[in-house]
Amino acid sequence: xxxxxxxxxFDDVYFSVENGLAETRYVFLKGNDLPxxxxxxxxxxxxxxGFGTGLNFLAAWKMFEDTAEDGxxxxxxxxxxxxxxxxxxxxxxxxxxxxxxxxLERMLEIYPALIPGFHRLNLNDHVRLTLxxxxxxxxxxxIDAKVDAWFLDGFKPSTNPDMWSETVFENMARLSxxxxxxxxxxxxxxxRRGLKSVGFDVEKVPGFGSKxxxxxxxxxxxxxxxxxxxx
Length: 231
Ligand SMILES: C[S@@+](CC[C@H](N)C(=O)[O-])C[C@H]1O[C@@H](n2cnc3c(N)ncnc32)[C@H](O)[C@@H]1O
Known about the structure:
This protein is an alpha/beta fold and 231 residues long. Helix content is 28%, strand content 26%. It has helices at residues 20-29, 55-67, 86-93, 103-110, 136-141, 166-175, 189-197, and strands at 6-7, 12-13, 43-49, 73-80, 117-122, 127-133, 147-152, 176-184, 200-206, 213-219. The strands form two sheets. Strands 5-6-4-3-7-8-10-9 form an eight-stranded mixed beta sheet, sandwiched between helices. S-adenosylmethionine (SAM) binds at residues 14-15, 50-56, 79-82, 135-136, 153-155, 160, 162-163.
C-alpha cells in the first residue's frame, strides 16, 4: 500500500497524511529561513535527526538546486537508526515522483546498504549526503562539523525520547555556530527547555495545518538553566 508510512513501535507517522511535502517545506525549510540562509555562503551544512524516507533531504536538495548560485555547496548530514530499504522509500515517495523527477532516482541509486556506520554519498559535484546509520546519541557524539541549520524530525517526544535527549541537545550546541538555526514540528515543553538549557533561543510559532504550534530558534550560546520540578 502506498499510504502514509507509520511506525508501530513509535506510534507515529513519518510525515503528514494530508500533505507531507507541504509540511516539510513549511516546518523545516521555511522554519530555517531557507533559501535565504544559504544566500552568499560558499558551503552550507544541514543536519537532521531521522532520515526516514529522505523526504526532507529531497525537498532541501531540490530547493538548493533551484536557488543556489554556481559554486555553492550543500552538505546534508542525517542520522537513522532503523533505515528503510530502497523499495519502501520508492513506494512511500511515489506520490511525489513528478516533483522529484530525477532527484528521487538519483538518491535511490546511491542509497547505501543498510549497515551501521557513516555513508558519504555524492549526489553530484556540489551536494553531499552523509547518512549515519546508528543511534542519534552515538552518531552526534562522533561528528565533527559546523552545522548551519538543524532539522529536528524524530518521532514525537513522548514515544521517542532518545531523539530529544540531553546528549542530542548538548551535541547540537557543540556543533553549532552562533546564529545556527533549528526548526521542529514539536512545541513540547521538555524540548523547548532542553534546547534553551544548551544555549538556543526558542520561539513558538504556528504549526502546519491543524497543528497549533511548532518551534524554531537560533544558537546564542547563552544557556538558560532548566528549572527543577516544583521550582
Ligand atoms: C518522523 S520520522 C523522520 C521522517 C524523515 N525526516 C523523512 O523525511 O521521511 C523519525 C525517524 O527517526 C528515526 N529514529 C527513531 N529513533 C531514533 C534514534 N534513536 N536514532 C536515530 N534515528 C531514530 C525513525 O526510524 C524515523 O525514521
